[in-house]
Amino acid sequence: MIPVGNPLPEPESFERKCRQKGLAWLAEHPDGKRPRDFWSPFRHDLARGFGERCGYGAMWISSGTVDHFVSCRENRQLAYEWSNYRYIEGWINSAKNKKDSASLLDPFEVQEGWFEIDLPSLQLKLTDSVSPEYRQRAEYTLRNLPIRDDERIMKQRRAWYELYESGELSLEGLRQRAPLIAAAVEKQLAKPKA
Q: 168 by DSSP, 3-state: which?
């Protein structure tokens, strides 16, 4: 996880095309059904705000989903609030589905240096920089979402790292696509040679 600018600018037509339509839908359907999707047309705006990177995986993704950080199950009234949306991989969103938001670290809360990639294992780990007030939720997030060492995310990390190692991707390109891997490479390059 890496810092994401917060708040993200709300798209100009969001109020009319999502929030107003969504709140009207909720008023007409108070029975607890899954809220109607008026948010997907704004997925590309959300992706741009996240630098086209998954909010949890911190790597470029071609087609992420709109995640409701506070799920519709927890609070239907936030279903159409721009500030409640995060851009994440679909399979990570599915894993997050049954978790209470109060237990998870919000990508908008993450500060620089809280997470790092270990080389050569490519596993995600917490650093000592995580402030005590966020530490428990950061540990829970790392343990309960498939972001530490799940094979799906490890495969992505290996692909970016191999592109860099082969010379097909510059360090600057790696920094844009997989910034935590780039930081790990820079840390390794800064170590004195034995």
A: coil
